[in-house]
Amino acid sequence: MTVPHPYADLLAAISVARHTRTVLGGQTVYWVYGDADAETTLLVVHGFRGEHHGLEPVIAYLPGLRIISPDLPGFGESPALPGRQHDIATYAAWLAEFSAAVAPGAVVLGHSFGSIVAAAAVADGLPTPRLILVNPIGAPALEGPRGVLTRLAVFYYRAAARLPRRIGDAVLRSRVIVRVMSVSMAKTHDRTLRRFIHDQHDTYFSRFADRDVLLQAFVASVSNDVRASAPRIHVPVLLVAAERDDITPIEAERRLARMFADAELVEIPDVGHLIHYETPRAAADAIRRFLPLSDAGTR
């Protein structure tokens, strides 16, 4: 990072410790924020090409909770899972095993690609009292407001996978491509905040294990969405959606909310797919209102 973190002071007041755990035969690296004796534990799952740092602005506004934030296998500090295809079924199985070992009974939160993973895991039986989806992928990415750009991204990832490994890896980690992605998603007009967002993506968006894992996860991200899991989820669900999301339009989020047995939709104006960077306090406020802070079984 080369740009000041606007949420650094809030984060500094929250304790954090790094841990590792063997899950599905691979090492998962995760961070625990807050006190071990906190009343409520929140297990958070980050989005595609990201890692645990991305959700820290939201965590900064949730003092008093115990928050467990792993790097998805193949991203950040977590290596790829040995001998496995990194698809939604694998990630959902990974999350279920990780939750059982590290955060049994925790409320589960997924952001973007993490919303697909979290919803699939809960639908498949991961026990949780509540589910939170931030910027949920509520419709096929190829049909979103920027479906043409998604198709270009498909071509980009597949082409890079066919290049010689060294060249393909360099293309996938290109700072120019990362910046184009960042600029296309940011909606804020605050120049300082935009610089922070771009710096976050420059710093963390290319910390993937290798191009094979990246391609597998990308295909999973554009080939799936939360709708397939929604009818099989029977715990209370909170959807925190953006009115200007280019990946899932707000109309699709409203339809998605009706697919759950019990769902609340919070719409945040003047923001797109980067709620976690641009409006983390609004997201945290919605989360705190939704959490069963006095319910049993949420430690």
Number of helices: 12
| Gross morphology | globular
The main sheet orders its strands as 1-2-4-3-5-6-7-8
What structural class is derived from the secondary structure elements?
A: alpha/beta
Rg over C-alpha atoms, rounded to the nearest angstrom:
18 Å
User: What is the typical, i.e. mean, pLDDT?
Assistant: 92
**H and E string:** HEEEHEHEHEHHHHHEHEHH
- Percentage beta strand: 15-25%
Largest beta sheet, briefly? Answer: 8 strands, mixed
Task: Give a short synopsis of this structure.
The protein is of the alpha/beta class.
Task: Indicate the topology.
Elements: H1 8-12, E1 16-23, E2 26-33, E3 41-45, H2 56-60, E4 66-70, H3 88-102, E5 107-111, H4 113-123, E6 131-134, H5 147-162, H6 165-172, H7 175-185, H8 191-204, H9 211-223, E7 237-242, H10 250-257, E8 263-268, H11 275-278, H12 280-290
Parallel strand pairs: 3-4, 3-5, 5-6, 6-7, 7-8
Antiparallel strand pairs: 1-2, 2-4
List keywords for this structure.
299 residues, alpha/beta, 8-stranded mixed β-sheet, 12 helices, globular, disordered C terminus
Structural notes for this entry:
The model is unreliable at 294-299 (pLDDT under 50). Helix 5 packs antiparallel against helix 6 (165-172), helix 5 (147-162) packs antiparallel against helix 9 and helix 7 (175-185) crosses helix 8. The chain is built from twelve helices and eight strands. A hairpin with a 2-residue loop joins strand 1 and strand 2 (26-33). With 299 residues, it is α/β, with parallel strands linked by helices. An eight-stranded mixed beta sheet has the order 1-2-4-3-5-6-7-8, with helices on both faces.
